[in-house]
Amino acid sequence: MTETAIQKTSSTTLTLQQLVKSDAIIKSAERTLGNKGRQFLTSVLALANSSPTIAECDPMTTYNACLTAATLDLPVNQNLGFAYIVPYRNKGKMEAQFQMGWRGFVQLAMKTGQFQSLGTRAVYENELADVDSFTGEPKFNFQAKKEGKAIGYMAYFILLNGFRKAEFMSNEEIEVHAKRYSKSYKSGYGVWKDNFDAMAKKTVLKLLLSRYAPLSIEMQTAITEDQKVGDEYADNKPGSSLEVEDAEVILEEDNGSNQ
């Protein structure tokens, strides 16, 4: 089934239930996911049934967001932190957006077999020791007892060949990034407000990996598709800083760990 046929299917007034039963979508899912295609379509309906706001979203955006998660083999359970489907109001229209969680980036990286370890965490006032004057890399003293408040977040990775890299972003730098790229942050409510820790970890880890890590096809897809709706990107399109215009995140009670 061609992309044109799928687009024609989505341009009608089909409900999500009707959409996932259409020949075009069934063939699309089976072509992408093989024998897991029909099980995937059932899970899309289950997700929409569990979330009234996702059920209100344009059916094709819900399908595409879920398909992205499925192709990356990431669960979209709101409590696990690997990936999320987040409803937005975009120019008066409800749309579903795929968003990565920081645990999803860790899982995809480790699956490549190139990483010895990687992770992300908050950095407290007495833990940022110095910055290397030559490389610009931060130095930490994580053996110190945590004191004061978190001043920022760090992410690191070590490859099997010994290459290692770390990144630190202060809370202020993370907030600047969020203000530029996140509609939910700009709105003053939603997951940036409710779970700043998880979103900050994801931000610094994603930037570190995208800049310095060897990226598998899955990792490239995750970085590119994160926070994308249709053909509109947030901070991921190469050479572009296009944002989803007039988008408003729709807050749900159980999605405090996503964006």
Notes on the structure:
With 259 residues, the chain is of the alpha+beta class. The chain has a domain at 3-100. It is built from twelve helices and eight strands. A hairpin with a 4-residue loop joins strand 6 (150-159) and strand 7. Helix 3 packs across helix 4 (37-50) and helix 4 packs across helix 6. It is globular. The protein starts with a helix and ends in a 10-residue tail after the last strand. Residues 1-5, 8-12 and 230-259 have low confidence and may be disordered.
Note the topology:
Layout: H1 3-10, H2 16-20, H3 23-33, H4 37-50, H5 52-55, H6 59-71, E1 83-90, E2 93-100, H7 102-111, E3 115-124, E4 128-131, E5 138-140, E6 150-159, E7 164-170, H8 171-181, H9 183-187, H10 191-194, H11 196-212, H12 217-225, E8 247-249
Antiparallel strand pairs: 1-2, 1-8, 3-6, 4-5, 6-7
Helix pairs in contact: 3-4, 4-6
% residues in beta strands? 15-25%
Strand arrangement within the widest β-sheet reads 2-1-8
Average residue-wise pLDDT? 81
Radius of gyration: 19 Å
Span between termini: 33 Å
Q: Tally the beta strands.
A: 8
Uncertain regions spanning at least 5 consecutive residues: 1-5, 8-12, 230-259
- Describe the largest sheet: 3 strands, antiparallel
Name the helicity range: 40-55%
Shape call: globular
Find the structural class using helix and strand composition: alpha+beta
Helix and strand element order: HHHHHHEEHEEEEEHHHHHE
- Helices, by number, come to 12
